[in-house]
Amino acid sequence: MRAVLGRALVVGAALLVSCRLAGQEQVGDVAYREARFAEALQAYRRASDRADDPGIQAKLGAAALRAGDVREAIDAYRQLASRAPIRIEEAVQGIDLAARIALETGDEEAVREAVFALGTLAPRWPIGRYALSLVQSRTLPVDEALRLIPAAMGAAGDRPAADSLLREYASGLRATASCDVAIHAYRSLRRRTETDNPSVAHGAATEYASCALELGLRHERATPWTAEEYFREAIAVDSTSPVGRRSLVALGDARLAQGDMFGGAMAYQAALDLAAEPDSLVDLATARLNSIAAAGTADDSTAAVP
Length: 306
What we know:
This protein is mainly α.
């Protein structure tokens, strides 16, 4: 008898909670219809505390949008997508609306939350203008900016703006990933800007050359012919800076490694000719040339012996 009574009490309590939650949802529905959105939001919050009902999350998101709480709306729509995958399109549209409102009101953090939620739920959803706003704010961590720059470029108002973003993208990849990845962005930037926007190309020249030099040095011992291609790429971009002149010395080393003493000497001499004043690179190129001269003298001496 006691067991039966206990079960009845549990069932009764559950029904009471269910009724209370349903009552809160109804209170929210009435308030929403009467455009009392702040009251509706409060009621839906109470209803959602214990109810795992995606419908309440949808209502909570809509009320939060109307009440101006875009961050709560974003969270509610994320919950909707998680609890009812069949309603993911509805959730994505709600988050997009929240992003638009946040953009218009200058709530940068809400825009950021919305953009990354959209990226998770709908990777192909157009986020260009949101991404552009966030990237141009210069407040994102580098890794987040790199994720958004490609979309931001598509929304840039003109080619120079897109080129500036591409340079930022290349620089960020160089700093956080590797030159293996970044050099493709630098190549694209050079193709786009060499004639139409030379100031951007010139500004990125040393960074680009540094990446090419780094990759060349990595291949120098095992495959000097591959290294040579990278060194020539660096020199073509920037031959006068310390990076460019170091690339000339490296090119000389690569030519020597392939048996081309004359080509090596020409590269070392170019490094010397481009020096504005004595420095360590002048010393390095001079030492290389002296080595070639010494080797040539030794060969002549050997040849003279009968």
